[in-house]
Design the sequence.
């Protein structure tokens, strides 16, 4: 289970603010990429850790939702700060998915409305314009509870956004596949064509675009 070891090491005796940053939605064929930044009050770490915060990928949908609500309660109680940022499909097309993800992370840290002493970034790259020192942590959501909390927030926020889009574009099954390239989603692409929320630079969408052009000419 992730813990506060990395946060405590970086904060040192002065106890500066350390945030964890993670993203959701780099791989799907549709929808935005969403990032979250979370600062947890280390003085309340026993109560925070008691909730079972873990890498969002290891949690069920219901557990993620429960922990998301608990993190919001921590924020309302002044025991956490949560920042959320996103990059749109248009920005993904313009920048590419890597740079769009870095942009979403910068926006999430900015949304904290405080400047952290240090940011722990899940993965092996740090955004260049973050506004504070940062350390990339491979598999960080399994090591740092702040990153794990950010992974939960980013995942829940993005999943809810895709479920909302599903109501307007039901052909693609986004409520269940969240925009990933499942057989259901690809069948929807074949039958309904490409929506404005699809990532045109991603291979399966690009292939469908080519097929549509062939069929209409």
Sequence:
């Amino acid at each position: 289970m992730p813990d506060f070891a990395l946060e405590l090491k970086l904060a040192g005796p002065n106890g500066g603010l350390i945030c964890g940053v993670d993203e959701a939605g780099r791989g799907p064929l549709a929808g935005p990429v969403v990032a979250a930044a979370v600062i947890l009050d280390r003085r309340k770490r026993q109560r925070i850790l008691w909730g079972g915060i873990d890498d969002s990928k290891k949690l069920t949908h219901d557990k993620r939702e429960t922990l998301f609500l608990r993190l919001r309660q921590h924020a309302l109680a002044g025991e956490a700060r949560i920042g959320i940022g996103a990059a749109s499909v248009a920005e993904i097309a313009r920048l590419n998915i890597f740079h769009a993800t870095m942009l979403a992370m910068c926006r999430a840290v900015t949304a904290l409305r405080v400047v952290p002493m240090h940011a722990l970034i899940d993965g092996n790259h740090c955004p260049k314009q973050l506004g504070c020192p940062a350390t990339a942590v491979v598999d960080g959501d399994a090591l740092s509870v702040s990153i794990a909390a950010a992974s939960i927030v980013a995942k829940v926020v993005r999943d809810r956004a895709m479920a909302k889009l599903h109501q307007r574009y039901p052909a693609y099954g986004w409520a269940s596949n969240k925009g990933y390239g499942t057989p259901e989603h690809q069948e929807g692409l074949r039958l309904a064509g490409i929506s404005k929320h699809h990532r045109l630079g991603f291979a399966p969408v690009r292939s469908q675009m080519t097929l549509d052009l062939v069929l209409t000419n």
Q: What stands out?
A: The chain is about 45% helix and 15% strand.
